[in-house]
Amino acid sequence: MRIRLIFSLKNKGAYLPFHHQYILAQFLKGLIVKGGREEFFNYNYFNFSGLKGQTKVSRSGLHYYSSLVTLVLSSPNEEFIDYLLEQVFATPKIELGNLVISPEYTEQETEPELETSNKFVCISPLVLLTPSFNDESGKRFINPDSDEFSDLLYESTLTRMERSGWYSQEQMESFYKFQVVPDMNYVNKLREQQKKFARIYSVYDMDVKYEVRGYTLPFTLYAAPEVQDFVFKCGLGAFTHKGFGMLDLANHGQAQRTEPYKFKREGFIPYKPHERQKPQELEGGEENPRTEEA
């Protein structure tokens, strides 16, 4: 399931870094631990977007000017989503970088029908490699049009699916058909315009800072429907539980995609229909233009 978590912004004009997934990851991890349920402390089968809203770019980062900002949370585990949302709504004032926000309501995205081939866009950067300590390999550029690009995503996806325990051995063996085909027309157009689709990002794991290369581009995934569903809900690539590799269907209408969501706690309704505004655009876009590109 995918939930849109809408916050009110208390200090319009405040900013976050261009890439702020690590700030969101630290915030969400803190809430998970704060709630006290140890079975979720190391739970990795969830994904989240960057913070979306009306922004302007400056040298400092992204300045937010909309009254509401949105974070998309995704996981196949409804119990985990409800647990995390309970912790969010128990925190009336939240500071993210320079932003001061307050949780207002939630919406659930209606689940799309996924086929054996789907065109996706990245609404957070896609990371292929998991670096080790004092290792620069995570920053290596890999051509999106190469077999290696698709093979790395295949290996990480099947590994995560097997570790989840949700699929039988027979099912796992049937998932061998997998291919990622990037939209090279889009990539080449960006290159011609001297714009970037591959950048270096910071990620923190066990309090250790790593640098990884992330890709933001549309692509078509050819795979079994179960695989498509897994990456749509859990993300694609490495560090998905830290906000990387979140996908959305390309050219999928936004207006009819949500419904009120009430999580399963008696007497608690985190939805205010009288305050509902038009959903923010959630597709991938340009981020830090000053970050390194291959």
From TrEMBL:
Q: Where is this region: Disordered?
A: 269-294
Q: Where is the CRISPR associated protein Cas6 C-terminal domain?
A: 110-249
The family annotation for this protein states:
Belongs to the CRISPR-associated protein Cas6/Cse3/CasE family.
List the PANTHER family: CRISPR-ASSOCIATED ENDORIBONUCLEASE CAS6 1
Pfam families, sorted: Cas_Cas6_C
Which keywords has UniProt assigned to this entry?
Antiviral defense, RNA-binding
Task: Report if keyword ATP-binding is assigned.
Answer: no
Q: Which domain of life is it from?
A: Bacteria
Recorded protein name is CRISPR associated protein Cas6 C-terminal domain-containing protein
CDD domains under this entry? Answer: Cas6_I-like
